[in-house]
Specification:
By secondary structure, the chain is α/β, with parallel strands linked by helices. It is built from eleven helices and 15 strands. The longest helix is centred in the C-terminal third of the chain and has 19 residues. It is elongated and about 80 Å long. It starts with 5 loop residues before the first helix and ends with a helix. Bound molecules: zinc ion.
């Protein structure tokens, strides 16, 4: 028996996709007119569902189940990247709305309520995960002064322009909130490749980024003998080669790495490079693994620095800690997916989500559903209707299971 109304779920998702519609996707960056209209629409849908709904002082739209002393928070974000997809975070918000509404209709809401939320600016037009940071009490006055690069408008100014100023932030209530559940499209190709329909997220990866700079000396590339050059790029290429050759042996199956930036100065075919810079990033859900990789890299860099004419220096430029999803919620998602006879796999999230913030304050669980062709953050982003509905059924099953906890 279905726990949710699939037609209503899809109709709401399609209505939401009309705000900021851009081809087959949406352009709905936070605090844009389309984003504000979408929030107003969501507020009214929450009220129609019988929730106690409001937009808080940072623009989080929340719908609280009345007459429930305990509640699961379900949500994600309705802002998008420029020219983004129609599902991204919007789907996770509409799941929350549909599950809260269905529980009110079936009389189960009194046993365990659902508090639905659309967190502000997950995509970080102003500040990544602004809304979930505010919900968790992590947002500072200084943070509100952060500006959107494209316009120079601060968060505080955007809040005033939107008419959200003056109210209070909606905050995590430890006496009430038992868990946070977020559903999201996978934004990658793994579920589709494995023919799995539900991804049970084990954690959101931590990220390390290292900038390695190399000093050399500019000389004529035709007249300076090879043995007499101080070529800045050569040790970086050696390091890069070693990374791709040896990382598979020391990483876990889920570790990913990327050399996404390589700058060479002066950047001319006939000049020996005088300086070069490489940015190397690696991601994993295990801090031990992240540390182990970093230590190995440092030893490789010192090996290279022992060679004559090599002068490498490294600077960490990002250290984002991993967030593990609560083990009991992973088990609950698996059980619910099995009950729906859905093929599932456990997997980390390589992308950031609001659960990355909330998971440090409240037990958090995440469900992924397949992205067609692994595509996202683009208007081509899509997922089959069957998978969208299945994901919501699985999440509704998880909430039923939490009633007894
Ligand atoms: Zn998202």
């Amino acid at each position: 028996m279905s726990r949710i109304n699939a037609q209503r779920l899809m109709a709401d998702l399609r209505s939401l996709a009309e705000f900021g519609k851009f081809g087959t996707g949406v352009d709905r960056i936070s605090f844009s007119p389309a984003d504000l209209e979408a929030r107003a629409w969501l507020l009214s849908r929450m009220r129609e569902a019988g929730l106690d709904a409001a937009i808080d002082s940072v623009g989080n739209v929340r719908g609280v189940t009345k007459n429930a002393s305990r509640a699961v928070v379900i949500g994600s974000h309705t802002d998008s990247v420029p020219k983004g997809g129609w599902l991204d975070g919007a789907m996770g918000v509409v799941y929350g709305l549909e599950i809260a509404r269905s529980r009110l209709e079936s009389g189960r809401a009194a046993r365990l309520g659902v508090d639905v939320v659309s967190f502000q600016d997950e995509e970080g037009s102003y500040f990544p995960c602004l809304g979930s940071r505010s919900f968790c009490g992590e947002l500072t006055e200084e943070d509100l002064g952060r500006t959107r690069t494209a316009t120079g408008e601060s968060i505080r100014e955007a809040i005033a322009r939107a008419g959200y100023a003056g109210g209070a932030p909606w905050c995590l209530d430890r006496a009430r909130h038992v868990a946070f559940l977020e559903a999201h499209i996978e934004q990658g190709p793994r579920l589709e490749a494995e023919k799995s329909r539900i991804g049970v997220v084990t954690g959101i990866v931590g990220i390390r980024r290292l900038k390695i700079t190399s000093a050399g000396q500019a000389d004529h590339a035709g007249t300076t003998p090879m043995t007499m050059r101080k070529d800045a790029v050569r040790p970086l290429l050696e390091l890069g080669h070693r990374v791709h050759a040896e990382f598979p042996g020391l990483s876990s199956l889920d570790t990913v790495w990327n050399i996404g930036s390589l700058l060479i100065q002066p950047g001319a075919a006939n000049v020996v490079p005088s300086s070069a810079e490489m940015i190397l990033e690696w991601r994993d859900t295990s801090v031990e693994k992240l540390d182990q990789i970093e230590a190995t890299l440092m030893s490789w860099i010192s090996d290279l620095n022992r060679q004559p004419g090599v002068e490498l220096t490294s600077t960490p430029i990002a250290r984002i800690r991993p967030t593990l999803m609560a083990e009991p919620l992973q088990t609950a998602i698996e059980a619910s997916a099995r009950a729906e006879r859905a093929r599932l796999m456990r997997m980390p999230s390589g992308a950031g989500h609001d659960a990355m913030v909330v998971g440090h304050h409240l037990p958090a669980g995440m469900i992924f559903i397949p992205s067609i062709g692994g595509r996202s953050h683009d208007i081509v982003e899509d997922t089959s209707e069957e998978d969208i509905v299945l994901g919501c059924e699985v999440m509704a099953g998880v909430v039923d299971g939490l009633e007894a906890v």
